[in-house]
Design brief:
alpha/beta; five-stranded mixed sheet; 6 helices; 8 strands; 22% strand; single chain; 179 residues
């Protein structure tokens, strides 16, 4: 059974790993409020469902995808309960042969390890090599659930804060799709 902390409305009192701490520091700088829960490592969307119930949010499924020649990268944020079909997404993006990016790509482009990718990792992409793609239902939901670049904590943020404060700060303009 997954161990969950109480729900908090602030950053942890103790300093966290740099990749996670930078998220809390940036959210504070941008005055973006959130609620947070700490937990065992979330390995699956089933784990994220349990976490989402505690936070009162649907956690996003986040996939880093790339073209065969690794010239284009997409961070897809979609509802966790929606199945991902590569062929359909490739058609929407007008790209052939999309596949999952490697662990090395995740680390190089977003500064995260597998299982920890999230929209918040775009703060680690200052040269905009990654195109953010949001499923329309995620963009229209009142709340956005994701990891703070480490999958041992999860956050609930207002989607409008992601769209109108965080993303303009990082310079990433999302593409909305209907999956």
């Amino acid at each position: 059974m997954m161990e969950l902390s109480p729900v908090y409305s602030a950053a942890p009192a103790e300093r966290r790993a740099d990749v996670e701490q930078r998220v809390y520091d940036l959210l504070a700088q941008l005055n973006i409020p959130y609620t947070r829960v700490d937990h065992d490592t979330a390995h699956t969307m089933a784990d994220c469902e349990i976490i989402g119930e505690k936070l009162g949010v649907d956690m996003c499924k986040n996939l880093l995808l790339t073209t065969r020649n690794h010239s284009v990268y997409f961070l897809l944020c979609m509802p966790g309960d929606k199945p991902f079909v590569t062929r359909e997404f490739s058609k929407l993006m007008e790209c052939s042969r999309l596949s999952f990016a490697s662990e090395a790509d995740l680390l190089e482009l977003l500064g995260v390890t597998p299982g920890s990718a999230s929209v918040l990792a775009l703060m680690n992409d200052p040269i905009h090599r990654v195109q953010l793609v949001l499923d329309r239902s995620v963009a229209q939901a009142p709340w956005f659930g994701c990891h703070p670049c480490l999958n041992t904590s999860s956050l609930r943020l207002r989607t409008e804060d992601i769209l109108h404060i965080f993303l303009p700060h990082t310079g990433h303009e999302p593409v909305l799709v209907d999956l």
